[in-house]
Design a protein that fits this description.
Largest sheet: none
Number of helices: 15
Shape: globular
Number of strands: 0
Structural class: mainly alpha
């Protein structure tokens, strides 16, 4: 009997334990975790309250209400975090753009001072200093913090020669030819000529079938071209040599953009990583052209000026690294259209600085011409923006 009674008691106890565990399991399943059921989010359970209490609220109703409140609170936290992220991104974009504009304009004015005021006759060598310092700084960063500039398996020696080296050639042309106009042209007029770049870019885009032909686009670049021509006519100290050098620099810039779109398609890189792989290609061509065209001037012109003004050249090299890094960051943070708008705004600020600091003269004809360029550029940007929206919406239809 005692054995049977013990068996019955054990059986009843097991059933009760099983039932309790089952109810507890249901509660856990509804509540999300054990901590939220016992004495956590539901303290009335810890106090012995239940669905028959005078509160008139069942365990499951209270639990559902609490989950709803928790869900609303979670959404509020998520919205707050999202707002903070947007604010941080906005601050980062604004800071990057401001630093890039400041450093870029400062470099233009400093290089012009070295080339013209100090009579430094090796512009390609001057440009190479900035690129060398950039690569040196990236290598130091990579040695100190390897995770900042990780290796890429897809950038093999063959890939670098076939894809990065051609871009480096045109990047060299952009930088080297872009320095030479400052010997004969004013800073303000050079900035006006830079507004002609979208015309050449569209021409090469059409040539390589990266852009569809449309009359509105032709009209927009036609307005830009007309404004640039008007600005040239109004230039007091016009010089063919400097103008042709600047146009050559813009041709190289347009080709660099086109080749980057063709050869580096789908190859996403961080700013420091991009500098690590692309800068050596540019340096190799800069050094080659400097040695072949300027080596005779190294001893009698370049070396004495560098030795007498080491601080200026160090600042110029540092600013060159700053321009490279901040421009990469701006490109990463902003779309191409916004970048073009900011470039135009930066050029306008530099024109104003050249008038105030260097005493450049801007005629009324030049102002009309530059205003025409800006109008054409604004129309061109509007067309590109509409085209981008159409490409985005087409897959949805």
């Amino acid at each position: 009997m005692s054995s049977a009674s013990h068996s019955d008691v054990s059986s009843s106890s097991s059933k009760l334990d099983s039932l309790a565990m089952g109810n507890g399991g249901n509660m856990v399943q509804h509540g999300g975790n054990a901590g939220s059921v016992v004495g956590g989010s539901f303290p009335y359970l810890a106090e012995g309250k239940h669905s028959g209490d005078h509160s008139g609220v069942s365990v499951y109703d209270a639990e559902a209400n609490m989950k709803s409140n928790m869900g609303n609170g979670g959404n509020a936290v998520e919205r707050k975090d999202s707002k903070h992220k947007q604010q941080r991104r906005a601050i980062l974009i604004l800071t990057s753009v401001l630093v890039w504009c400041l450093v870029s304009n400062a470099l233009v004015l400093l290089n012009r001072h070295i080339l013209v005021e100090l009579n430094f006759k090796c512009p390609v060598l001057l440009t190479s200093f900035g690129q060398m310092f950039t690569f040196f700084a990236v290598c130091v960063t990579r040695a100190v913090r390897p995770a900042t500039v990780p290796d890429r398996d897809d950038v093999t020696p063959r890939f670098w020669i076939l894809h990065c080296l051609p871009i480096g050639l045109f990047s060299c042309g952009t930088l080297a030819l872009g320095q030479m106009p400052y010997y004969t042209l004013s800073v303000s007029y050079v900035q006006m000529l830079k507004a002609f770049t979208p015309v050449l870019t569209l021409l090469f885009m059409l040539l390589f079938r990266l852009e569809k032909f449309s009359w509105p686009l032709v009209l927009s670049v036609g307005i830009i071209a007309g404004g640039t021509g008007l600005a040239a006519l109004g230039e007091i100290n016009f010089a063919w040599e400097g103008t042709l050098f600047m146009l050559g620099s813009e041709v190289c810039e347009a080709m660099k953009l086109v080749l980057s779109q063709i050869l580096l398609q789908g190859l996403a890189m961080a700013p420091m990583q991009s500098l690590y792989y692309m800068t050596p290609a540019t340096i190799s061509f800069l050094v080659f052209f400097s040695v072949t065209t300027e080596s005779k001037l190294y001893v009698e012109n370049a070396l004495p000026i560098v030795m007498n003004n080491p601080g200026l050249f160090t600042i110029a090299a540092t600013l060159g690294f700053g321009v490279n890094l901040t421009s990469m960051a701006v490109v990463k943070l902003l779309s191409g259209l916004w970048l073009k708008i900011i470039v135009q705004a930066k050029g306008a600020v530099l024109m104003l600085m050249s008038v105030i600091l260097l005493g450049d003269t801007i005629t009324s004809v030049q102002l009309v011409g530059y205003a025409t360029c800006v109008t054409g550029f604004a129309y061109h940007t509007k067309l590109k923006l509409s085209s981008s929206k159409q490409r985005v919406e087409e897959p949805r239809k």
